[in-house]
């Protein structure tokens, strides 16, 4: 058995959640799961249909993007995952999809405004949309630069990746992350739902205002604050 079997299994199970949750079409997406002690992550192989995946087909890669184990090519987004893992040491799972509503906001180059308590249950800010990549970055190491595009956006806005676990990449699509691959998938599903709700909200009321700060604080802290009381 592979020394990396545990993260291969974790990555496989997380990847299989994407089609079940309606977050991917064909092979439009990938999940990775990291082991910080080993300094590697397991990621979906490139272009392999979900119904053909297995734990054994997951590819092991280090945080510099080098393949350590696996006979298949890793996802084309592997270098983006590697950059995020290398720079953000508190995450162990990353998801990239082209889910319909979140991608539509990314293509529109708009943040997703915080309009309601569903959004506030998960984060206290708008979902950021990183500016489209410069021509210089596009012509360079594209997937590597995408990782820096994400990091730069949060840094420029004074946002912490442990508080904001999701982002839209302008003209591209969403990325989410978390302490586990399963949490990153959860965040991806939440992002898609919030994106859909925000679109419908603006269609129903084009003059809608952002959620007031007292409600944002209340809903976030009842789930996440030191005095949280949601759940068991």
Explained architecture:
By secondary structure, the chain is of the alpha+beta class. It has one domain: L-fuculose-1-phosphate Aldolase, CATH 3.40.225.10. It has 8 helices and 8 strands; from the N terminus they run αββββαβααβααββαα. The chain has helices at 5-20, 78-87, 100-107, 117-120, 135-139, 142-157, 181-204, 213-224, and strands spanning 29-35, 40-43, 59-62, 67-69, 93-97, 129-130, 166-169, 174-178. An 8-stranded mixed beta sheet has the order 4-3-2-1-5-8-7-6, with helices on both faces. The longest helix has 24 residues, at 181-204. The termini are far apart. The relative contact order is 0.16. The mean pLDDT is 96.
> How many domains?
1
Q: Count the beta strands.
A: 8
Helix percent band: 40-55%
Class computed from helices, strands and strand pairing: alpha+beta
Question: How would you state the average pLDDT, rounded?
Answer: 96
Shape: globular
CATH topology: L-fuculose-1-phosphate Aldolase
Name of the top-level CATH class: Alpha Beta
Write the layout of secondary structure elements.
Elements: H1 5-20, E1 29-35, E2 40-43, E3 59-62, E4 67-69, H2 78-87, E5 93-97, H3 100-107, H4 117-120, E6 129-130, H5 135-139, H6 142-157, E7 166-169, E8 174-178, H7 181-204, H8 213-224
Parallel strand pairs: 6-7
Antiparallel strand pairs: 1-2, 1-5, 2-3, 3-4, 5-8, 7-8
Helix pairs in contact: 2-6, 3-7
Short structural summary:
The protein is an alpha+beta fold and 232 residues long.
Structure keywords:
232 residues, alpha+beta, L-fuculose-1-phosphate Aldolase, globular
């Amino acid at each position: 058995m592979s020394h990396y079997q545990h993260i291969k299994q974790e990555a496989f199970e997380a990847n299989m959640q994407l089609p079940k949750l309606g977050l991917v079409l064909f092979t439009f997406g990938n999940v990775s799961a990291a082991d910080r002690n080993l300094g590697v992550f397991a990621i979906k192989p490139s272009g392999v249909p979900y119904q053909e995946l297995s734990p054994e087909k997951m590819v092991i890669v280090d945080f510099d993007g080098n393949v350590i184990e696996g006979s298949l090519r890793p996802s084309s987004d592997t270098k983006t995952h590697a950059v995020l893992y290398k720079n953000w040491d508190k995450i162990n799972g990353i998801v990239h999809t082209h889910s319909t509503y979140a991608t539509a906001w990314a293509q529109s180059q708009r943040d997703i405004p915080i309009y309601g308590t569903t959004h506030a249950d998960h984060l206290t800010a708008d979902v950021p949309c990183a500016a489209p990549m410069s021509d210089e970055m596009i012509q360079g190491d594209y997937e590597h630069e995408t990782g820096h595009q994400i990091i730069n956006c949060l840094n420029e806005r004074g946002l912490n990746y442990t508080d904001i676990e999701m982002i839209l990449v302008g003209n591209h699509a969403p990325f989410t992350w978390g302490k586990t691959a399963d949490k990153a998938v959860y965040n991806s599903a939440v992002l898609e739902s919030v994106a859909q709700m925000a679109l419908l909200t603006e269609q129903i009321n084009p003059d809608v205002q952002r959620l007031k700060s007292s409600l944002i604080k209340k809903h976030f802290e009842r789930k996440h604050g030191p005095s949280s009381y949601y759940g068991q």
